[in-house]
Amino acid sequence: MLKKGTKVFYISLFICLLFIIWGLVPSSFWPTWNLDNITTIVQGFLVSRFSWFYLMAATIFLGFAIYLIFSRYGNIVLGKDGDKPKYNYLTWFGMLFSAGMGIGLVFWGAAEPISHLHNPPFDVANDAEAARVAMQYSFFHWGFHPWGIYATLALALAYFQFRKDEPGLISVTLKPLFGDKMNGGWGTLINVIAVFATVFGVATSLGLGAQQIGSGIEFVSGSVANTVTLQLIVIAIVTVLYMASALSGLDRGIKILSTTNIVVAIVLMFFLLFTGPTNFILNFFTTTIGSYISNLPEMSFRMSLFNEDNMSWLQDWTIFYWAWWIAWAPFVGMFIARVSRGRTVREFVIGVLLVPTVFGTLWFSIFGGSAISLEMNQGIDISGTMATGGNEAALFALLEHSPFTMILSVLAVLLIAIFFITSADSATFVLGMQTTNGDLNPDFKIKLIWGIVQSGTAAVLLWQGGLMALQTASIIAAFPFAIILLLIIVSIIKAFQEEGKKMSSRQSRKGQPRKEKFSN
After folding, report:
1. Which of 76-85, 107-116, 363-372, 495-504 is predicted with the least confidence, judged by mean pLDDT?
2. Which of 48, 152, 256, 504 would you call most buried, defined as having the most Cβ atoms within 10 angstroms of its Cβ?
3. Residue 398 structural domain
4. Does some domain include residue 489?
5. Does residue 1 lie in a domain region?
C-alpha cells in the first residue's frame, strides 16, 4: 500500500481500472453491454436532453470571469499580501498555454476550418461567407469560452490554496457553501468526480495526439500506415518520455518543455505566415476577429432548435468542445493555479483569458487560413485528404504545399510530441496532487500509476472507436463536473464577500474611512 494514498486515490484508481478492463473486453463477447455501446447510449442521452445545459454553463463561466476583471475583487492577491509571482510572464504564459490546449490546436488548426468550410453550422450564401463562418466558429470554439472555464476553477483553487492556506483540492473550493461536509464523504465524492473528469479529458487529447503523430510518421516515411497499432505504439513510447519528465519535477521537466513548446510553435506559425499567403491570412484574421467578437453573444446561446441538421452540427462540434474543456478544467485549473501564486485576481483573469485567445486566433488564421486559401484559390483538395486520412492528416496536407515540406513535417511531429508530453506530465502531476490531499510534491509512485492509467485509458478509447469514442468520453465525464463548477462560482463569490466584510471591519477599527475597493 502506498504511504500517501488517500480514499480519493484508491476509489478513483479502482473506477479507472474497471473502465480500462471493461474496454478490453471484446464487443463480440458482450455485445449489448460493451463499453462502446453503453457510452454511446449515455452520450446520446446527454446531448439530446442537456445540450442547452452545456451551452449555458460555458457562457456563465465566461461571464463570471469577465465580471471579476471589473469587480471590486480584482485587486485581491492570489496569495498573501506582498507575495510576488514565481514565474515571469513568458514562462507563465507558456506553461498555462501548453497545459491548456496544445495538442488540440495542432490537431485542429487546419482541419477544423476546412471541415466547417465544407459543412458550415448553418446555410450560407456563397463560398466566401462559408469561409468567414468557418473561421469565426473556429475562433469561438478555441477562444474566450474555454479559457473562461479554466479561469473560473483555477482562480478558486489558487485563492483557497495560497490565500487561505487550504490544500489544493477541488472540494476545498466549496467550503464556503457546505462547510465541514467537504472534509468527509461529500468532499471525497467531489474529488473523485474531478479525477474522473481529468483522466478522460486528458485521455481525449492523448488520443488525438497519438493519431496525429501516426499521421506524421505516415507522411514522413511514405511507407508506414497510420493504423491503431501504430498509434498504440506511439502512446507507449511517449508514456515513457512524459513519465521521465513528470518525475523530474515542475521546475525542471514541465517548465523546460513548456518554454520549448512556445518557441517551436511560434517558429512554425510565423514561418507559415511569411512563406504563405500573408496578405490573405492577415486580412482573414482582421475580418474574422471582428466577426467573432460582434457575434459572440448570439453564438453563445445558439441552439438551432428547428433545424435537425444544424442541431446535429452543434452537438458534434460546440457541445463536444464545451464538454471537453469542462472535463479538462480540473487538470488545467489546478495546474494554472499552481503556477499563478502572487498574481492579483484581475491580472490573473486578464492573462488567462486574453493571451491564449489571441495566440489561438492567430494560429487558426495562419493554419486554417492557409488551408482555405489552398482550396479556394489554388484548387488543392485538403478536404479530400482528410476524407481518406482522417482529420489528423490535414496539417500534413497543408505542409506538403509549403517550402521545406519535410523539415516542417518533422518539426510538426516534434511539436505534437512535446505537447503530448507536456499535457500528460502536467496531468500526472495534477492527478498526484488531487489524490494526495493536495500535496504540492506528490509521491513519484503515485505519479507513475496515474501516468500509466492515463495512457491506458487513451489506448482503450482509441481501440474502441477512435475519435468518436474520445468525444463520447469527454461529454460524459464533463456533465457532473459542470454542476460542481457552477457551485464553485457561488462559493467564490461568498468567500470574496466575507473577505470584503473583514477588510472593511479592520479599516473601521483603525479609524480609516471605508473603501469601496480592495488594495494590495
Report:
1. 495-504
2. 152
3. 7-22+38-499
4. yes
5. no
Nearest to 339 by CA among 96, 6, 82: 96
Q: For 402-437, what is the HEC assignment?
A: CCCHHHHHHHHHHHHHHHHHHHHHHHHHHHHHHCCC
For residue 24, the tally of other CB atoms under 10 A from its CB is: 13
Q: Domain with 305 in it: what CATH number?
A: 1.20.1740
Domain assignment of residue 334, yes or no: yes
Contact 16, 457 (CB under 8 A): yes
- Contacts for 157 with CB less than 8 Å, ≥ 6 apart: 168, 170, 172, 173, 333, 334, 337
Give the percent of the chain with pLDDT over 70.
89
Cell of 110: 487546419
Is 251 a residue whose pLDDT tops 60?
no
Q: What is the pLDDT of residues 135-183, one digit of tens each?
A: 999 999 999 999 999 999 999 999 999 999 888 889 999 999 998 889 8
Q: Measure the CA–CA gap between 234 and 311, rounded to whole angstroms.
A: 35
User: How far apart (Å, rounded) are the C-alpha atoms in residues 388 and 396?
Assistant: 13
Q: How far apart are CA 444 and CA 248, in angstroms?
A: 9
* Cβ neighbours for 235, distance < 8 A, ≥ 6 positions apart: 206, 210, 455, 458, 459, 462
Lowest mean pLDDT among 105-114, 472-481, 498-507: 498-507
Q: With contact defined as beta carbons under 8 Å apart, do 152 and 330 qualify?
A: no
- Could you tell me the three cell numbers for 112? 477544423
The three grid cell numbers given for residue 63, joined into one nine-digit string: 461571464
Whether pLDDT at 216 is above 90:
no
CB of 154 within 8 A of CB of 340?
yes
- Total structural domains in the chain? 1
Sorting pLDDT into bands at 50, 70 and 90, what band is 339?
A: confident
Residue 72 CA: distances (Å) to CA of 290, 354, 511, 518: 29, 20, 21, 6
**Could you read off the pLDDT of 183-211 as tens digits, one per residue?**
889 999 999 999 988 888 778 778 878 88
Q: Enter the pTM of the model.
A: 0.88
d(CA 93, CA 141): 20
- Nine-digit cell at 343? 498574481
Residue 225 lies in a domain: yes
Contact 342, 85 (CB under 8 A): yes
Cβ count within 10 A of residue 388? 7
How many Å apart are CA 496 and CA 124, to the nearest integer?
A: 46
The number of C-alpha atoms within 13 Å of 404 and in the hemisphere containing its C-beta is: 10
Distance between CA atoms of residues 342 and 85, nearest Å: 4
Whole-angstrom distance, CA of residue 126 vs CA of residue 195: 46
At which residue does the C-alpha cell 489546478 appear? 334
Dmax (CA) for the chain in angstroms is 79
